[in-house]
């Protein structure tokens, strides 16, 4: 029975790292003493050690210890023996590259399918979908495959942005990019706005947070999903 929080971002404007999610995480990780942190996405090229420190400071507020996967000699065993797992944001290409390089993607999928509590933010949410192909990140490395965990039957577009009214920017919108994706791919895409997240309990996926999310399907008009509703594909 899957037990996952899939969040658009770790930090919302005017708030500290994970602060807006902490009440939810306190319940989500109830009874957990140590969370295994996967820092492979490395936002801004930060070191694994410094990234783990940032995550650790947030989790101390709910009396949970964080230990980075890089601190273990065997990352596969670290995942298979974890009480709970958090994959942070950053560059999705590098995150997926490292998951393949360390041969832990299938292990991560296994423990999540078996009910190990999981938190993903940004890149750590992108990998929960069928593929990572709807990331907004630059392809700084080339992973062996774009196939990811497939714990949910659609892809995530984290940090989803709506067009800004009266903006003079003439570049493509996020919606345009997703429509381009659907020329060649059938996988639905959920645009998660900042401050929103998905709660996954086994096969039930519920949108949470203050904002709506935008669901895109091939050859269909996008739909706005209200917070609190079950996401049905």
Automatic annotation (TrEMBL):
Q: Does the keyword Protease apply?
A: yes
Q: What class of enzyme is it?
A: hydrolase
Among InterPro entries, the record links this protein to: Class_I_gatase-like, Peptidase_S51
List, alphabetically, the NCBIfam families matched. PRK05282.1
Gene name, Swiss-Prot/TrEMBL = pepE
What is the protein's name according to its record? Dipeptidase PepE
**Please, one GO biological process term?**
proteolysis
Which Enzyme Commission numbers does its entry carry?
Answer: 3.4.13.21
Which SUPFAM superfamilies does this one have? Class I glutamine amidotransferase-like
Q: Which GO terms describe its molecular function?
A: dipeptidase activity; serine-type peptidase activity
